[in-house]
Design a protein that fits this description.
alpha/beta, D-Maltodextrin-Binding Protein, domain 2, 2 domains, 5-stranded mixed beta sheet, 11 strands
């Protein structure tokens, strides 16, 4: 039997949704459900092992070939880029990127350079470049909603699911940028070397979405 396929899973909600999908396929995910502090866990009937990682690291592991497959949000894929194949939109982990501003403020008025706070500088930069707008981007690691409240920024670019956090902090969506959801990515060499196994797994995933 070939060595197990390594599948990097984004920790948190995508991990839970992926386990649900694997169980729907019929894989035994007992080890994943009872993981404790372990980070590499067997999915025996898939001849696979799951590697639990942060979203950015999922891409790094797949790109460098230490994991064959990754399950990660489209937000991370667009922000980080990289050399891999993106094969399936899993349809879960759905939300949207949005530009949000203080309620009632007119972001597009005036000629000065606007300041944008975001955890996703590449996505923000590309978005405003596509609109022909010159902006200054400030990278924030924590609650990006604070930036307009502290008058550090004119607006934020962030992931919006329900919009409740924006509302509670006196912000509103000025414009939606792009929809996002979980995707399956595959290492370029793995797809050549283990094509049949990967294609079989992808087929099972697609049949159970």
């Amino acid at each position: 039997m070939n060595k197990p396929l390594r599948i990097a899973l984004t920790k948190g909600r995508l991990e839970k949704d992926t386990i649900g999908l694997f169980e729907k396929i019929g894989f035994d995910c007992t080890a994943l459900r009872e993981k404790g502090r372990k980070l590499i866990l067997p999915v025996p009937d898939a001849n696979a092992e799951a590697v639990l990682a942060k979203a950015n690291d999922v891409i790094t592991y797949v790109e460098h070939g230490v994991c064959d497959i990754g399950i990660v949000g489209k937000d991370t894929i667009v922000e980080m880029g990289g050399k891999f194949f993106e094969l399936v939109d899993l349809g879960f982990g759905k939300c949207r990127f949005a530009l949000a501003v203080k309620k009632g403020s007119d972001f597009y008025s005036g000629f000065g350079v606007k300041t944008i706070a975001t955890k996703y500088p590449n996505i923000a930069r590309n978005y405003f470049e596509s609109k022909g707008m010159d902006v200054e981007i400030v990278k924030i690691e924590g609650s990006v909603e604070l930036a307009p409240l502290l008058e550090l920024a004119d607006g934020i670019v962030d992931i919006v699911e329900t919009g409740a956090t924006l509302k509670e902090n006196g912000l509103e969506v000025a414009e939606y940028i792009m929809p996002i959801s979980a995707r399956v990515i595959v290492n370029t060499v793995s797809l050549k070397m283990r094509q049949k196994e990967i294609e079989n797994l992808i087929k099972l995933i697609e049949e159970n979405l």
